[in-house]
Design brief:
Layout lengths: L2 H13 L2 E2 H10 L2 H4 L4 H13 L3 E5 L11 E5 L1 H16 L5 H10 L5 H22 L11 E4 L1 H26 L36
Antiparallel strand pairs: 1-3, 2-3
Helix pairs in contact: 1-2, 1-4, 1-5, 1-6, 5-6, 7-8
Length: 213
């Protein structure tokens, strides 16, 4: 799975329609350039590729009063919405040690109904426990990492990571079941995007040729 596809589709969906720089600005506001491959070139490339694939509809709009070329605004197609939710659901249940997909999925989980989010996270916990069990078929945590020399520290790290993530996921499920956050069709969602005139305190200030298109 590609985190950049999920991130870009999710960012466009939150706006309804968005041009490339808005998407880039949102992802930098979320810090995605630090924990994923959401760099400017990757973002603009993903927008164009997904438009070619029929996941996004590209609208050419008039140039700004300040001049410059017409900007392109992107909007999810029905196919794009299907792809977005498929990526989101798969990312919520998959335990693959990749932080970018997991982080993106948690950021967009409220786009799902509450009960579905709970069910997906419970499935994630089951898969974590299943994955942990496959590790301890070959590694006995009680005997410590030394049983395999320093290489045992790798399996020791895997087990500790799985235990920590399972505990955190169970806690998240409890918070959601207790009513935390606003999920799909429950009311006004948390606004996680910047207004057009709002300054981004986390922007990289790195210019890219596509910023004005």
């Amino acid at each position: 799975m590609s985190a950049i596809r999920l991130l870009v589709l999710g960012a466009v969906r939150q706006h309804g329609r968005a041009h490339g720089y808005q998407v880039r600005n949102d992802l930098e506001y979320w810090g995605a350039h630090e924990w994923s491959n959401a760099k400017p070139g990757s973002i603009y490339h993903a927008l164009k590729q997904m438009a070619k694939q029929g996941l996004l509809h590209a609208h050419e709009i008039a140039p700004s009063t300040a001049g410059g070329p017409p900007r392109t605004e992107y909007e999810l197609t029905d196919k794009g919405a299907e792809e977005y939710f498929a990526l989101l659901r798969e990312a919520l249940v998959t335990y693959d040690q990749r932080g970018d997909m997991k982080t993106a999925a948690i950021g967009f989980m409220v786009d799902l109904p509450r009960a579905e989010a709970v069910a997906l996270l419970q499935e994630r916990t089951r898969r974590i426990e299943e994955w942990r069990a496959s590790v301890i078929e070959h590694y006995v945590p009680a005997e410590g990492p030394g049983q395999y020399g320093h290489i045992g520290e790798i399996m020791n790290m895997w087990v500790h990571t799985a235990d920590s993530e399972a505990e955190w996921t169970r806690g998240l499920v409890e918070r959601i079941e207790d009513g935390a956050y606003t999920f799909a069709d429950e009311g006004d969602p948390f606004v996680g995007v910047l207004a057009d005139d709002e300054e981004n305190p986390y922007a990289t200030a790195e210019r890219h040729p596509e910023d004005d298109r």
